[in-house]
Amino acid sequence: LKIDSGKPILSANDQRAMANRARLRELGLTAVNVLASPGAGKTSVIKRLLEALRARCALGVIEGDVAGRIDADAILAMGIPATQINTDGGCHLDAAMIEQALGQLAIRGPGLVFIENIGNLICPTGFALGESMRLVIASVPEGHDKPLKYPGVFQTADAVVLNKLDLIEHVDFDLDFFTRGVRAVNPAAPIYHACARTGKGFDELVAMLARHAGI
Ligand SMILES: Nc1nc2c(ncn2[C@@H]2O[C@H](COP(=O)(O)OP(=O)(O)O)[C@@H](O)[C@H]2O)c(=O)[nH]1
Ligand SMILES: [Mg+2]
Ligand SMILES: [Zn+2]
To answer: In ligand 1, which atom is closest to the CA atom of 167?
Structure first.
């Protein structure tokens, strides 16, 4: 017995995300959706990655924030194309926003587009943007229990960055507990230990991204 619910198989957002994916492929661009809580270091990590990759390929950044253009301006100040999306209270980016931002960004590959999502470990998880990789950033001061408390976002991660490792002596952070927490929900994603403040720990992450983007 088959029951036709009348619902489309793909949501409107999923359909737009598929269109974004096709457009990115045509342009030779690989999009990385960067997910984390507010202040975990999304912009700082992206800036480190841009510095490491800028000599090798085209780069662009789509910045998502509730308000303001602080992050986009910081990227533009590096001489790298950036577009700011303001969600005006909205707590996640969706594929339609990315479609528009890609038009404004106007870059061609081969290269990478980093999408800094709204700082939020919950609902951005449910919205595909057309990315080919999800990078989830956790940071030491947030505590080692976050993978177990917000399993969804860690489950969909293709790679996890643990940022602010320089602060590990100042807070009670159990690295083992964190690692086991990630593994409980995501057996495969590599975990990179990083410090965006000093640039320590970025080599392997950069190499993985370059491999992934074929650059
Ligand atoms: N100590 C330390 N601070 C960091 C590190 N990475 C980022 N920060 C600081 O954390 C704050 C939030 O960083 P930001 O990149 O803006 O986070 P975002 O809100 O996730 O984009 C800023 O004051 C950064 O300077 C790090 O590795 N170590
Ligand atoms: Mg930011
Ligand atoms: Zn939301």
So the answer is: 1
